[in-house]
Specification:
The protein is mainly α and about 110 residues long. It is about 75% helix and about 0% strand. It is elongated and about 60 Å long.
Length: about 110
C-alpha cells in the first residue's frame, strides 16, 4: 500500500476540520460525537442565559431566534464546506494510482 493510501486510511475528519479552521495540525479530535458536542454547547448556552438573570418568559423567544439564526449560519457554512471539500477531493485524486483513489473513497465514505 502506498504512503498516500495509508495516510487516508488514518484520516480523521475532526483533525482535518481543525486544520482547515485554525491552521494547526496539532489539535486532538474530540472523542465526543457531534450530537454530544451540540448538547454540551446548548447546555452551556442555557446556563449562561440563566446566569444573566433575564426574564424567563423571554428565554424561549430569544432562544428560538438564536437557534434560527444559528441554523441558517450552520447551513451556509456547511454548504461552503461541502463545496470546498469536493473541490479539494477532486484536486487530491487527480493522477493518483487506483489503490490510493480507492483508499480515499473509503475514507470519505
Amino acid at each position: 500500500m502506498s504512503m498516500i493510501s495509508e495516510m487516508f486510511e488514518r484520516l480523521d475528519t475532526g483533525v482535518v476540520t481543525e486544520l482547515l479552521l485554525y491552521g494547526t495540525s496539532t489539535s486532538v479530535a474530540s472523542e465526543d460525537t457531534c450530537e454530544q458536542r451540540l448538547q454540551e454547547s446548548t447546555k452551556q448556552f442555557l446556563e449562561s442565559y440563566k446566569a444573566l438573570g433575564l426574564d424567563p418568559h423571554l428565554s424561549e423567544d430569544i432562544t428560538d431566534i438564536f437557534y434560527a439564526h444559528q441554523g441558517d449560519t450552520n447551513a451556509i457554512y456547511f454548504e461552503l464546506g461541502m463545496k470546498a471539500g469536493i473541490a479539494l477531493y477532486r484536486k487530491l485524486v487527480e493522477g493518483f494510482p487506483a489503490d490510493a483513489q480507492n483508499a480515499i473513497d473509503k475514507a470519505v465514505g
